[in-house]
Amino acid sequence: MSWFIAFLVLSFLIFFHELGHYTAARLMGVYVEVFSIGFGPRLASFRAFGNEWRISAIFLGGYVKMKGQDDSDPTKKSSDPDSYTSKKPWQRIIILFAGPFANFLIAYIFFFTIALGGPAVLEPVIGDVVKESPAQKAGLQKNDKIIAINGKKVHTWSEMAKEVASSQGTLKFQIERGGSVEFKTITPQLRDARNEFNEKIKRRMIGISSAGVTKKMQFGILGSFKYAWDKTVWASTMIFKGIEKLITGAVPAKELAGVVTIVKITADAANAGWMAVLFFAALISVNLGVLNLLPIPALDGGHIMFNLYEMLTHKEPSEAMLYRLTMAGWVILIGLMGLGLYNDINRLIGS
1: burial class by Cβ within 10 Å (0-12, 13-18, 19+)? Predict the structure, then answer.
């Protein structure tokens, strides 16, 4: 059942992305011939709103086929007033950007829903204290609850960890122990650690671990809007950083995941409850939005670059250049998909 939910989630995200393109195209007066979930041979279809709605065999994405647009041969054009190629560059950019924007929008809605549901977070309650660590030397003990650092209130374990990691010099901890409040002075030490990209780094730490005590956060309506915005920006930033580190080699290519891993993670989240499903669905949706904005000719970002070029130079790219770049883009895209699938298979074999 969890795998079925994972496929439904991925299908919904693809549908929503293409719906963004579809809606913008219709608003710009472009005739949409086909709206497809998946590529390749048609499995099922029906006609509604003047176009064909299709489910195709290769479940690795989807597409909206607009009049005058052919990704397999970008030199094919139509001068009809309801065609994509007859529209002005800024109109085509809106149509292209609408797909990724839809992904960011649905991610925001998912994060907003999570905020309304009251996400569980770790409280700043201490579990184990490392021997000979700054925390032990200062007298911190198991089950101590950290209330504030240098007078600044901390409500979650994450907030506390960020305060320590970003600190300079000595810190004054306000803790709650057995119903009373105590103050402890601690100087963090630089220790070896790993960041979110599994890179070796130095981080200021005091030598404590979480007791695993959780609580539900209550944001209210306005707080939920802010939570959703912050999480959407955070997810986008993380993905951009991940792409940068893949390109520079800071993160090895074997870390690239494909559709199998994405489905597996979503299936695992389904077993953890609806909030976990929404959280990972939001991450995947932001991922789709960011990746589609990359300046690769086969993706939305590549087509946006072509139209920006036309806007700035007041001339279209040559057909030869357009064709070569688009074919190169497909090679890059298929190569990345193949690498992701290869890594997925290796992970499955390894597990």
Answer: exposed
